Amino acid sequence: MAANSVATAATQTSAPAGTELTDPFTEMVRQASTFIFDIVAANTPFDLRWDRLLITLFLACCLFLFYRGRGGRGADGRERENKGLLAYLLPKDIYTHVSAKVDVGLWVLERILRPLWTVSLFATVGPFTAQITIDVFLSLFDASPALEINYAWMLLYSLFSLLCYDFVFYVIHYTMHKVPALWAIHKIHHSAEVLTPLTRGREHFIAGPIWAAGSAMSYGFAAGVFTYFFDGSIVVATLFNVSFFSFILGLNGAFRHYHIQFHYPHWLAKWIQSPAMHHTHHSYLPQHWDTNMAAVTSIYDRLFGTLYIPEKNEFTPWGIGPNTQHEYRSFWQNVIGPFKDWHKMIRGGSSPQNGAAAQSGNS
Q1: End-to-end CA distance of the chain
Q2: Low-confidence winner among 10-14, 199-203, 244-248, 261-265 (lowest mean pLDDT)
Q3: What is the model's pLDDT at position 230?
Q4: Residue 314, SS3?
Q5: pTM of the full predicted structure?
Q6: Long-range contacts for 88-93 (Cβ within 8 Å, ≥24 apart)?
């Protein structure tokens, strides 16, 4: 989701204690002149997040040794035979695939436009949500209890922020799958026929503000809650200058859009989504559609009945299926795709469909 780095920076900015409760987002806006250009610079197309890519490759090397070369998927979605470490990390059929090339184009476009909504939405939606939350608590419980800060509370704040983010992500993601007008946008992400680290940013440019607003709202709510209880002085627990739980679970997220598939024990998969579970989410097979909607945990998928834990070596072909895949093979097809779908809907034609309906020829 766009602007996670901004959210982390925002939640680490403490506000002065006193009669006025100032949440981290409001403080961020007040100090914007000192780091706004850093935000923009961190979201340019030239920033490939090499640290994350290197961590992903390092973990992939560990998996190669541990699984003895097993777990890598080919462009057809099936497990590939072991052909050595380099082929395991960077398989030719994946990275020369036309879908991987489209990933690059859509990623660059998304990164060019990201600073516009990153700055504007986190400077508006975040503070507004935080202030509304504070006002509600003040109206219900009067003055802040001004709890004493310790590391346990900081960890709890970090965890609570993550759970809020995951819930809002789930709601937006579920809605994008179920509402035809929004599916027309999100379908661009699912049109990826292979998974690479850049597939994470394979989004239509219209989707960016939606994700950014949701992210700002979730972090703003968490900031507002903890600002009230700690009189504006709480900060998240961090690891390598990143929210503790976001860093730990971010290592898991690095493999969500990577061709190497591995599973967690069944008991753990009920709590945290494994990369294999997100591979399943990207499958066009009817039994896999509209499953595993959350970003990090499995909690909300369990609560709302969308959890799907795949079996080992389960076939998960990626994309939107043979009936419509040819309409989303080029960069420009993906850029204009939503507008074509909306035009059909306005003129009374068929709505864009996902899942089994799309594969049965009804789209």
Answers
A1: 28
A2: 10-14
A3: 87
A4: coil
A5: 0.82
A6: 88/60, 88/64, 88/260, 89/57, 89/60, 89/61, 89/64, 91/259, 93/194
Looking at residue 73, the DSSP 8-state letter turns out to be: B
Say what the pLDDT of residue 222 is: 92
Long-range contacts of 262-267 (CB under 8 A, 24+ apart): 262/63, 262/67, 262/71, 263/310, 263/312, 266/309
Domain-located, residue 338: no
Q: Which residues contact 283 (CB under 8 A, 6 or more apart)?
A: 77, 289, 315, 316, 317, 318
Q: What are phi and psi of 100, to 5 degrees?
A: -65, -35
Considering only CA atoms, give the Rg of the chain: 21
Instruction: Read off the tokens for 234.
Output: 């709480």
Q: Tokens 């809002």 correspond to what residue?
A: 168
Which residues, 6+ apart, have CB-to-CB distance to 219 below 8 Å? Answer: 7, 10, 11, 25, 126, 161, 164, 165
18 CB contacts (<8 Å, ≥6 apart)?
Answer: 231, 232
Location of structure tokens 């070369």:
69
361 φψ region: left (φ > 0), alpha (ψ -120 to 50), beta (else): left
DSSP 3-state assignment of 241? coil
* Type of residue numbered 344: K
Distance CA 327, CA 182 (A): 18
Q: Let me know if residue 136 belongs to a domain.
A: yes
Q: What is the dihedral of CA 160, 166, 167, 169, to 10 degrees?
A: 140
Domain that holds residue 102: 4-304
Q: Could you tell me if 192 and 199 are in contact, meaning their C-beta atoms sit under 8 angstroms apart? A: yes
Question: Quick check: 259 and 103 in contact, CB under 8 A?
Answer: no
Q: Is residue 60 part of a domain?
A: yes
For the chain, give the mean pLDDT.
80
Instruction: Tell me the percentage of the chain whose pLDDT exceeds 90.
Output: 41
**90 part of a folded domain:** yes
Instruction: Categorize the per-residue pLDDT at 34 as very low, low, confident or very high, splitting at 50, 70 and 90.
Output: very low
Based on the structure, what is the number of domains in the chain? 1
Count CA within 13 A, CB hemisphere, residue 145: 9
